[in-house]
Amino acid sequence: MNIIKPKKYPTLYYCPGHLSFAPHVVLNELGKPFELARLSIKAGDTQRESFRKLNPKGKVPVLITENEILTESSAILLYLALSHPESGLLPPTPVGAARAIEWLNWLSCMLTGVIALNFHPSRFTDEVESFNGIKARGRLEVIKVFEQINHRLAENQWALKEGYSIVDPVVLIYFRWGTLLELDMNQFSHWAAHTQRMLQRPAVQKALATEEIVIGN
Ligand SMILES: N[C@@H](CCC(=O)N[C@@H](CS)C(=O)NCC(=O)O)C(=O)O
């Protein structure tokens, strides 16, 4: 694959099961043509020089539009929603939009925090013998945050009271990571119900099939 020059716009660079899943779902929801470029983090694709020319941070998602290279899941999601206001994927009120950012910011900070403690203890210490302690602590911290997510999802059908939005696919991918951490995700009953609602959506089903991943314990 020629990483630098996509054939069509927009093109989403993604790795199956990662945060790029959220903009992938949103692109499906919009129902307009787009291209996907699949990368493997495991195989080192995100650290290759060619990819780092697109995103020096070496992370997915990246969205290439005709004029821009966008990085950061929250920015990409916001761009997609704002450029398709008819989709209703972002509430039109200042407070509604702020609530969306509140969620997105919170969730994406988790990646470098409690989630990384579990999946990447080497980012926090060079002492291999400390890895298990960091992971164990990280697990407790994840559970605390997951309880808060569950609590917030008790209030409405979707993350925002206005309805389904760009936030919900991000919430879904964190649910999957909970299952990968072998947490019993059914303990988070409101979140588990949210996941079931998400799984009914054709855009989600299509993204899961394309990425060849499943969600659930
Ligand atoms: N803050 C970024 C985080 C993106 C991120 O951490 N992506 C991970 C996958 S979930 C990644 O691409 N990792 C590749 C690597 O570290 O080589 C965002 O919200 O988009």
UniProtKB/TrEMBL annotation:
Transmembrane segments: none annotated. It holds the Pfam family GST_N. It comes from the Bacteria. Residues 7-88 form the GST N-terminal domain. Residues 93-217 form the GST C-terminal domain. Keywords: Transferase. InterPro entries: Glutathione-S-Trfase_C-like, Glutathione-S-Trfase_C_sf, Glutathione_S-Trfase, Glutathione_S-Trfase_N, Thioredoxin-like_sf. This is Glutathione S-transferase. It comes from Rouxiella badensis.
